[in-house]
Model the fold of this input.
Amino acid sequence: MGEPTEAGRFGEFGGRFVPETLVPACQELEAAFREAWADPIFRGDLDAVLREYAGRPSILTECRQLGAQLGLRLVLKREDLNHTGSHKINNVLGQALLAKRMGKKRLVAETGAGQHGVASATAAALLGLECKVYMGAVDVERQALNVFRMKLLGAEVEAVHSGSRTLKDAVNEAMRDWVATVESTHYCLGSVMGPHPYPWMVREFHRVIGTEARAQCLDAYGADPDVVVACVGGGSNAIGIFSGFVDTSARLVGVEPAGGAAVGRGHPGVVHGMRSYLMQDEYGQVQEAHSISAGLDYPGVGPEHSYLASIGRAEYPTVTDAEVVDAFQLLARTEGIIPALECAHALAWIAREAATMQGQTVLMNLSGRGDKDVGQMMEVLGS
Amino acid sequence: MTNPDLEGHLRSRRDTGHKLLVPYVTGGVNGWLDAVRAAVASGADAIEIGIPFSDPVMDGPVIQQASQLALDGGATPVSILHEVREVDVGVPLVVMCYYNTVHHAGHARFASQLRDAGISGAIVPDLPLEESGEWCAAADDASVATVMLAAPTAPDDRLPRVCARARGFVYSVGLLGVTGERDSLAATATSLAGRLKAVTDRPVVVGVGVSNASQAVEACRVADGVVQGASVVRRLLEGGPDAVAEYVSEVRRALDSEFVTSVS
Done:
């Protein structure tokens, strides 16, 4: 995967649709990232903190029981074992180091499930930055543990009561904060979305997932996987693992929730600074996504996913909440791993489509652990 | 049909010694058409009509609330542009709409819908200069003036390019932040207006954070005029069109008594 165009486009997607106030900040960020990413000292600092703090590289785990049951070789990339419990730490450590380098004193972040918020609060604590996290009021309620974690880490958490009171509204509020505080504050965006350079920069920070996974697959199996699967909300964990395989013949599958299928059901639209597939009504009002997983409750998708879909390089099927609940329990019982509800989407698709992939090697990004979802699942399943 | 010429109208008002007063009304909320008429009767030089959007990132709580009320009441871009044809107020009307509304309708189609509804100009706050080419071309073709925003964060070399692409007036963003009332006028309101006046002859109108008559006067010591957004919308929500009339009259009087030296 290469750089977007100068205008931040992946094909016809991406761009920089932000208020004038933020244009200079986006330009400054782009220049700072470009310069840092080419600087061996920055890269060395980031590698060191990923290794010594986040716990990279993450391992591969082959699911022998579940694989035998499904008739395929199922391999998990264990991003759930990173510090803070998900892949999100890769991106926030990169952005927080960059923010420090740019002289910013404060991070703002949006969060859905709370994973990006926790990761941002963690990086801020580590690097001595202030941190404010915006979270939809609905998500504050269903992810109370992560809210408390963020506060423990010294972050301020603000519940967002506007609109659908979920992730998209948290993004709006974080952008409003950034418009007002842009001189001192870096917006630590949590996915491969938003205005240029975020989709590109966040992908580069997650590229490590795919780079590691490809080397690990070659080492373990002597070949690339046949299929690479990840869940897609904004799409950062998916783009991270896809980046290692986009130039192979592996089939790339991004699994969206049925109630938040931007690629599957959306049309090109512009919100949150980018042109991408977007769930919207006949007048262009952005629709509310509905998913059991707060982290995927997003009506848009990162522009590079829209591009990969438009050129047919990746496919974006959907799974239902019921299939996700089954997959969540399936991995726990067969492999002793409780996945985040987000990643259970990827597994649900693999379980449903296993008959079409018999004997194949299927690499799935297990992008987060499910501890945060246990309370919610107690209610769904009954204790 | 020829709509009022936004820039020509504002220039002639300015050049005859008046400061420009542009109240903002969220389309689709209860009483909004009467509020538009009342604002014009109370001395507005142009009216900005907000087309409500689900995700208004440049707006603070008051206009967010108005947008949500309008959407909950079933307002759509089409219904607002249909209803606005009923008003014949003799001053130019300008819509404020987020870019997805334009993008979804299609540039040329939306521009002609505006023209056919009697709209003279458009403000698209999340469409910065670099992304504005297609829309501006379509708007130019339909004789709809695209008002460009200029922000306090812009470096000096950006402002002339923004002003060159602006039609109607240049919207000078008063502060770092979203729409809403503030206790005092930010220093950026007059400093940016001054920087713009130095590089353009187009009317420079300050909006965002100009919250009452005295702040309007303060901004107009440098600028050619002001947009009154949240302060008008809050009154519309709380007191209806009569409260809008009273407030716009108050601001008009304050501006005229401060700046209009002779009454012809």
